[in-house]
Each structure stands twice: as C-alpha cells, then as structure tokens.
Design goal:
7-stranded mixed sheet, 420 residues, 2 domains, Major capsid protein gp5 fold, alpha+beta
C-alpha cells in the first residue's frame, strides 16, 4: 500500500462524481427532475464515492499522510514562535526534579523503568500487586499523591485520537505550554495611516491601536469504570480500550467547544467569534452566488491561506452548485492526490460534525484563515487510578483530564455565512 493506491481511489471517486454530474446535467437540459431510475443511479454512485473517500482517508492515516492545512507549534521551541521563542536564556529550574530532568535530557515519565511501572500499575487487578519500588519510580513524575503523568508514547496516542473527531486541531494554530497560567497575547486592532505632507508642514500623527487577548486552561475531564473481571482478563487490551474511550469523550467535547463554545468555562468557538460575511436568502438553501459573495467578503490577504468548513449535510448541497454564465462549472472539485482535500472556489474544504446544518437562523458556513484560531494545550494528560472509590461495586475507576482553551485572535480572518 502506497500513495499510488490512494491516488487510484481518489481518481475512481472523481469518475463517479463526474457520472453524477452527467445525470443531473441531462435532466437540467430537458428542464425536468430526475426520473426514479436516474435518482437511484445518482444515489448509488454517491454512496460508492463516499465509500472510496473513506477508504482513501483511512489509508492516508495508516501511511501518515498529513492533509493540507494546520500547523502545530510548541511553545517551548524558540524556532516555533511560541511563548518561549524570544531566543533568550531559559528560565532556571524550579525544582530538583526539573534540574535533573534538564541535566539528563529525559523526562522521568519517558524512562524505561517508569513505563514498565506505569503499565504494571494500570493493569494490576489489585493495588497490592504494585511493589513499593514501582510506586517509588512512579512518584518521580509528579508531586501529587497518586496523580501521575502518562508516559509520552501513551500521551501522544491520546492526542492523536483527539484529532480524528473534528478538523479544528488540524487547521488551527496549536500551542503547548508546561503550565496553565493565563496567557496574555498582545494584538494590533487598528493600524495608523500615512498622509501627504507639504514642505515645512507639520506631520500628522496617527497611532496604532493595541489590544490584548488571553488564553486560559479549561479542564475537560472524564472517568472510566472498569470491572475487576475485565482487569483480570489477560486477553483484553486495556490500554487500547482506555486510549480509545478517552479520545472519544474528550475529543468530542473539545472540538465542539472550538467550533461553537461560548467561552463560559470552556473555549470560545470560532463560529461564535467569526465576523459577519453573508446572510443567505434561504432558510435551508445556499446559492452559488452567495458562496462567491462570502468568498469575496474576506480580505484578500486572508484568502491566501483560507479554508471552508461545513457540516457534511451542507456539503451535499454545495456539491451541486455551479457558476453562472455559459461554462456552468461546478464550484466544488474533488481532491485527486493523497493528502489533498476537496476544493471550493480553489480553496480547501473541510468537514466538521460540530458545524450547524443549513437550517433557519444558524451559521452553516465558515470561510477564512483558521491559523488565526489559537488552541492552547497544557502539556501532559493527568491520569489517576481509583482503587477504593468504586470497590463496593467490583470496579476500578480511571480518571483523566486535559486542560485547553481556544480563541479566534483576529475576528476579521474568518467570515461566517448565516441562514435566513
């Protein structure tokens, strides 16, 4: 399996889409609706095209093909433009453990002895099965009683799982920090202007206007209960189960907030902050002209890196739209190369399940440069095993939380389309 297999699937999908378009063009030429047989053939090809797309995206994930858009920034890396990127001297270590970590170059939770102890601890049916030596090893990673940071390989699997539920982490700017203090981020809200000035005349002052945005660290938390019998079943892959379930719960919660969150105890969604673009005339419909208007409502500097974000049901409407004039070209074009998204008016299209459908009064379309939406993560997933709390029910609890925030730093960078 390689990229050529993915490209072949995408080419087959494009062929089916062209056949779908031929069916609709034939009916339009005769000024009639699709016959029952034509509608059946259209639906059959659409189902097959969607299945080819799912297969191609699965293969992309297996091969590690990164879709276009999005950039991850580590705030600790001076070259990444994060908080620690001033190129100056690093802050002195605050604890002896931090000093030893810097000297060794290895985080305690990444050492081999810690990882062995961690997995012995997480899979033990009885806490007494974990030795005092293993508890001593585990305590190196955290000062909290019984609260341990997950090893890096486990944590990375969880973060990767979060990305599968929506596209916000893929197309936004992601910053990772070691602590959860509020980040203050200065911004320029308005620029000054220059003026033509006569000889020996006074200069006209024109100031820049500065603002400030802040990113907090809201907690997304969950508890998983596992039966003692399940813990004792050696054939069960407990690690994979917990990783998948945590990814499902936390991933869905966070992505919803990144899209439509109100900022109260959670991130502020990009749809909540996006500036007004176009109000569609229809309560449940969108026209080609309206999408072109929305495209041009965004200033040209932002259009160079802009993307479209829709719900899947809205994309089904948009697929059928054409430009006006004699050419009648479709606005939407399928991606033909591995890692390349579909495009609309030449810009990438992304599907996000948390976008609203094309329904009365709702924001159904976003178009803009999503790198201006910043996601702030606090480094590490906190994880705790609860042996006694649910013992009366023959269960063991596993508690985890992730701290994050998100905010659109420049509201002019993303425009919204709202149904009538």
């Amino acid at each position: 399996m390689d990229r050529s297999n993915i490209n072949q699937l995408l080419e087959e999908r494009a062929g089916l889409i062209e056949e779908m378009r031929t069916i609709t063009v034939t009916a339009e030429a005769d000024s009639r609706d699709l016959t029952a047989e034509e509608a059946q053939e259209f639906d059959r090809r659409e189902t097959a095209a969607d299945e080819l797309e799912r297969r191609a995206r699965r293969m992309e994930k297996l091969l590690g093909v990164t879709p276009a858009g999005g950039r991850t920034i580590n705030a600790d890396d001076p070259d990444d433009g994060g908080d620690g990127g001033d190129g100056g001297e690093p802050e002195p270590p605050k604890t002896l453990a931090e000093f030893r970590e810097r000297r060794s170059g290895v985080r305690p939770q990444d050492e081999a002895e810690y990882r062995v102890a961690f997995y012995n601890w997480i899979t033990a049916a009885d806490s007494s099965a974990v030795t005092h030596e293993e508890y001593r090893v585990l305590s190196k990673a955290s000062a909290g009683a019984g609260l341990n940071l997950v090893p890096t390989d486990f944590r990375n699997e969880l973060v990767n799982a979060l990305r599968e539920f929506g596209v916000m982490r893929q197309i936004s700017r992601v910053i990772t920090t070691d602590s959860g203090e509020t980040m203050q981020i200065p911004s320029v809200t308005s620029h000054g202007t220059a003026a033509w000035t006569a000889e020996n005349a006074a200069f006209t002052p024109s100031d820049e206007v500065f603002g400030q945005a802040s990113l907090s660290a809201y907690k997304a938390a969950t508890i998983i209960l596992v039966s003692e019998e399940l813990l004792e079943d050696s054939a069960f892959d407990l690690e994979a189960y917990i990783r998948q379930e945590f990814g499902l719960r936390i991933g869905i919660l966070e992505n919803t907030a990144y899209v439509v969150g109100d900022g109260s105890g959670k991130p502020t969604g990009v749809a909540t902050q996006a500036s007004a673009g176009v109000s569609f005339a229809g309560a449940a419909a969108i026209t080609a002209d309206e999408l072109i208007d929305l495209y041009h409502s965004l200033l040209s500097p932002y259009r160079r890196n802009a993307s479209w974000v829709f719900k899947d049901s809205t994309i089904k409407l948009v697929r059928k739209l054409k430009e006006g004039g004699a050419t009648g070209q479709y606005l939407w074009q399928p991606g033909l190369v591995a890692g390349a998204p579909d495009t609309l008016l030449g810009r990438p299209v992304y599907v996000d399940p948390d976008m609203a459908a094309a329904t009365t009064g709702l924001i159904s379309v976003l178009f803009g440069d999503f790198s201006f939406y910043w996601i702030r993560d606090v480094n590490g997933i906190a994880f705790q095993r609860l042996n006694e709390l649910y013992a009366a029910n023959g269960q063991v609890g596993f508690r985890a939380y992730h701290r994050t925030d998100g905010k659109l730093m420049n509201t002019a960078a993303v425009k919204k389309g709202t149904q009538a």
